[in-house]
Amino acid sequence: MEPSDSTPEESGASRGTPDGSVEPETALETARRQLDRAAALLDVEPRFRDRLAHPATVTEVTVPLERDDGSVDVFTGYRAQHDSVRGPYKGGLRFHPGVDRDECVGLAMWMTWKCAVMDLPFGGAKGGIVVDPKDLSEDERERLTRRFTQEIREVIGPTKDIPAPDMGTDSQAMAWIMDAYSMQEGETIPGVVTGKPPVVGGSYGREGAPGRSVAIVTRETCQYYDRPLEDTTVAVQGFGSVGANAARRLDEWGATVVATSDVNGGVYDPDGLPVDDIPAHDEEPEAVTAFAEEHPELNRISNDELLELDVDVLVPAAVGNVITADNADAIRADLVVEGANGPVTFAADAILEERGIEVLPDILANAGGVTVSYFEWLQDISRRKWSLERVHEELETEMVTAWNALREEVEDRDVTWRDGAYAVALSRIAEAHDSRGLWP
Ligand SMILES: NC(=O)C1=CN([C@@H]2O[C@H](COP(=O)(O)OP(=O)(O)OC[C@H]3O[C@@H](n4cnc5c(N)ncnc54)[C@H](OP(=O)(O)O)[C@@H]3O)[C@@H](O)[C@H]2O)C=CC1
Ligand SMILES: O=C(O)CCC(=O)C(=O)O
């Protein structure tokens, strides 16, 4: 794609990875390769790169759970803390069967860059439990969440490390974490976690925030490339916290959302889907395919087919590693806006760049979530609630400011959007480390 007022860019990308390794990539491998590329671009000192390629700490815990039938199952949980030079660690908790140590570390690295891109006073962390939340009753989910909180109590806290929702967790889980932590500490401490229900110190607008930021980034980028939203078709993979909210905002702002999906597959209508009528994952899991069954006039597609639709904008907003070297050549969207964390592998990124497909990176696009988490943390500290209108206004300002800082970097350095975002993030982190001194 070309910006509305500039000449075409030459791509410097080559296929495959610089070290010749093959996919599939873990989140950690992808994050490290992205860091290496950005470090080379910015001429970052090797000791700085070497330190940032590793987490500060990873806590692994055993979480026993008494099942409703009285039996006991034992689960594994993690909290990876990557870098805290700019402030306390911050990042979500994932309940998913695919959680492992390396995934948490890679996702924690992305949180460090995300907070720096948004200029938030936080570092990066991520954690979770290796569990399929669909296999838990509500009571089991509560007991597991409370026991996990007890196990990681020493490493979290409102000025230390502040968890938040991610895949498989929600505002209810955050309320249990706050309650369990507060009971252990002997006083109510809302600022230990964000993404809580507003009645216990949560912020209005946090649930919809990552999807809203995906929509804002899509809108700004379409405008930059002279593409009115009214003439823009969008496919959104995943209809959860990120995907459903992105789809609904883009639909509200005039775009045509032609496809979406859940874990079982997707639905496609070239005239546009009624996205407000499809329940989001938190309202009803697997609701997209259930909706498709009730509407036989709509086309059923697979998740792979959704990614390859001939649309203007593709928003992968479900899981990581869905655009790989195997399907990057088949992507037909002009613009990919990363709703999920790490949906495009390092090798796929190079192929998309070579093909002139712009990729707006996760560390900017879905950063509305952590930005409203920051607003929530401020509200918890000051014990003063913001209105939904204020949250939306301040999020709009933060996102547009960050998007503009990135655009300047992309234009000045003549690099991809991802490289530009890494340039913004790494220079802010390096500056913070330099001013604190004696590092690493
Ligand atoms: N929640 C947040 O605050 C933030 C989340 N993110 C990232 O966004 C992504 C999605 O998170 P979130 O929206 O919270 O997750 P949710 O759990 O709310 O929703 C996930 C959605 O993806 C679908 N899904 C699950 N697995 C697959 C699969 N293998 N293929 C296709 N679809 C699938 C689910 O379908 P079903 O309903 O059938 O289960 C559901 O629609 C993750 O990468 C997360 O890290 C990024 C920033 C903030
Ligand atoms: O809100 C937060 O603190 C973090 C959200 C998150 O995990 C993410 O942006 O990936």
UniProtKB/TrEMBL annotation:
Stretch forming the signal peptide: none
Residue stretches making up the Glutamate/phenylalanine/leucine/valine/L-tryptophan dehydrogenase C-terminal domain: 203-437
BP-aspect Gene Ontology terms: L-glutamate catabolic process
One Pfam match: ELFV_dehydrog
The protein's assembly and partners: Homohexamer.
Record-stated family: Belongs to the Glu/Leu/Phe/Val dehydrogenases family.
Name used for this protein in its record: Glutamate dehydrogenase
